[in-house]
User: Fold these one by one.
Assistant:
Number 1:
Amino acid sequence: MSASTLAWWSVADIVALIAGLAIYLFIVGSQLKAVAADLEECADLVWQIKKDAEAIEPGLSAINTTGRVVAGALPLLYGMGEGIVVGATYQHDEHVADGVARPAMGTRRTRLMEGVGAQD
């Protein structure tokens, strides 16, 4: 190989490297633009949520006060509920049922043993 051929291949390699880097940067740039657009949309949504939350904030103290009242009443309500359940619990009468329900005609005779030739 001569020196001019080696220089030519060096220039071709450098041009191919620069072209590859340019394509890579173009692809990464387009992906970053898409991410930036998504982030901008997310930022708008966050600001909208913040604006909606500011409208709710004054009512939070009333909600918390009501929650404390309800939490304070829960033991009393639980005790009252227990009293109602004790008075309304069903007491099973032992004499109503005498075990397993049996058909009125008695037990059914099987023919499985006859099918295999066994005599009872």
Number 2:
Amino acid sequence: MSTGQNNREIDMLHGAIASKLFIFAWPLVLTGVLQQLFNTADVLTLGQFIGKNAMAAVGNNTPIIGLMVSLLMGVSLGANVIIARYIGGQKPEKVQAAVHTSILLALVFSLLLMLISELFATPLLHQLGVPEEVMGMTETYLRIYLLGLPAIGLYNFEAAIFRSRGDTRTPLISLIISSVLNIVLNIAFVLGLGMDIDGVAYATLIANVVNAVYLFRGLCTTQDILHIEPRLLRRDWNAEECRRILRIGLPAGIQGMVFSLSNLVIQSAINSLGADAMAASAAAFTIEINVYCVINALGQATTTFVSQNYGAGKLKRCFRITRQSLLISALCMIACPAFLLYFGESMLYFFNSDPHVIELGVIRLFYVVSPALVNGGIEILSGALRGYGYSLPPAIVTLICICGIRITWVYTAFAASPDYGTLMAAYPLSWTATMLLLIAIYLFYRKHLQIRRLHVRPTFG
């Protein structure tokens, strides 16, 4: 793993910005797509070989799984920001402490999350209003999937560590291996062993474990600044570094969870519309999420680049990074939605050939994919603020606008007109309100940073 490792690093502190953002981001895009391929492979296998009820069961779990994974990914961003800032500030001893602390935090945090999730899995599914005909399969898939949360948490922290120094390809290689394994095991368990939804869930669990082990071995064998010594994990645990990671990571995780929490309410409303609506949403989600992979990748790139440069005291370069990230995001968010909207109906057919399911899926794609330009802006501005250490403000904005508007919409507009299109309109409305408020927040903190620079050196805000 150490051979050629330096060639995977990106110099974020000097030279061109846009080209390096792109080089950093494209493996992240592929990583996000492959992460979704886990879910896509499950939906495709069940939709083609088991039936639309099994497909709907996975769809019912998507918001719950998204809730857990969003929290883990968000907290791992805290590790990314802290380690990147130490690298930018040329503090190798602090990098080592932060890396070891991150790994131990990942294990403890994700184990606790797994135990809590397993405890409340059944009540949560009942709260969602999952129909009885798919409840058994839904719970089976969820409980098996939750067993893999420690592996998912460890992978996200490990990937954040690699990305903090500009290496986005190693996590991608790991995910390619585990994604291929997941597909092979899906086919082997369902077609070869005659298993049902449990076979698909176990395939995903095994692939997630392999994914985490691969990156852990990479960190243990590398001889550079990110090297991990397993026997020193407890000794190098640093409570202050843990607090710094959580100070940035928890609000980022909460921001991601807010999206998932609001989607839980929407999923409950979707469930009230029947199996066709559930199947359509599951299929459309596996398509539309690929647009978000691009958005999220650019947001993570912005966070890492801003964090390193802020640690090095290059505030003007941080501002240029944000501007160029917004431009790249705008170009991508015009091209990607246009492609998916044009080919969306054909893509949906691969998941399920039922005409009504496809019709509803097209409606969802229109409402969710069309405003991607706005969604991209939200992610870039949030990413920039996190890079400076201001992780709480975008989380609060998201809580108020995303969660508040969507829940209000479900219990007012949708309750008055329980139509699938009416329900989906909650997405663009909430994103637009969030973007407007977030622009004001970003401009405020930008001015604050300029004033602060005149008086003090950069700190962990």
Number 3:
Amino acid sequence: MNLVCVINSMGGGGAERVMSILSEGLARRGHSVTVLTLDPSIPDFYPVPPGVERSKAEGPSGDCRWYQFARQRERVLALRASVLARGPDLVISFVDVTNVLTLAALKSSAIPVAVCEHINPLQYRLPPHWELLRRLLYPSAAAVVMLTADTLPWARSMARGTRVAAIPDPVPAPVFSPESQRPEFFGKGRNILGMGRLIEQKGFDILLRAFAKLSQGFQDWNLTILGEGPRRGALEDLRDRLGLAGRASLPGASRAPYDVLRHTDLFVLSSRFEGFGMALAEAMTCGVACVSFDCPSGPGLMVRNGVDGLLVPPKDEAALARAMVLLMSDDRRREELAARAPEVERRFGIEKYLDEWEALMAELAGSAARSRAS
């Protein structure tokens, strides 16, 4: 099958990581795959895999505000031209606004479009103008793909009569660098790791406050928050106000997260909400004991509470601190959870993910053929 996969960029982020995995897997299974990005100003963080064509729509660079109608029209027309030039059997689009733009670009074509949400839309709302466009255009999609079953009712209400499906993100097996060594930014002693974009959603402010509650009793433990984003300054200010300078570091994003995770003693996911929670999945596959908020949605699917990790009530800072103390003070319990954690890869492995996508692709291709015949 000839596929075009559309995403705003291949910069750092969970959706971009999954796009890399999906495109590589489908190409490996014999499909012709092009990854097409909209914003040419954002450099690739994730390299496009061998066997996958890389293309950029020749539209405007940078952020296009909704009211910049000429720039938005230019962007939509560039996207349409790029897709039509490849004559795909199916277009797969990732992430809300990009989904809207892709559907707008291809609305009058006969090319089926599967749009994928990569955040929980019940927790994260688009600005009203984009929300209205999404509601108007999603019914024209061939399928709306969510990450978890609990968000399917939203998809059905958003796109009545359209095929909806839940396909969780894939959990790849970890790949370590041969020269992997303990990161210098870990310092001495044991380390707690949080990982993700430095944005409000990820709750790193909650993690810092939870660590501050227990840090005096655990002088041999430090905290590292791995990632980059617009909240860096605010988080660094909070760290300093909490008296955690020298105990909590924010060293930036890493292109080799598995090499960091293999030297981590405890992973904490402090997100207010998630689409799925790839950082948590990656930590579990590396055999790291994990504590996670049981936030909407994703962590509760991966973590079997008390078996391969601990779940605590969402946004409950005190409960998070207590769970961290429980594992920081009990090596045996921490090791027991860590030993079971990699089993998550069997439940959410890449091949299962690709099987589900290929089944959906075959279904959509059959529907498109029947529509053309009629």
Number 4:
Amino acid sequence: MAKTFWVVGGEYADTDFIMIAGGGAPERHGPFAAYDDAKDEWARLSWEHIDDAHVRYTIDTEDARAYWVVGGEYADTGFVDMASGQQEERYGPFQSYKEAQALWQQMSWKHIDDAHVRYRIDHV
């Protein structure tokens, strides 16, 4: 199976580059079939934000094509431990990122008013 490449990142809350500002998901640009194409996009985005110390992009390699929407209700906004009595929810697999993104968006909007609910897209 051929590798695909994504440029991932955006504006982070601080220069630890762990959490996206505002708590959202990182931007994902791609997929790119060739590393050089991903590198060109990474360079374009990085130069576009050269004066913002909180913006960072990386190139992510992806070998698999199965995507999962994962998340649920967490104990707090650190989004590490599930709320008491809750288990992590997993939806999928989806064959494309776009399919998974559609469900992720639906689930996220469904719980927009609950600060303890978060979903993400994983690939395996």
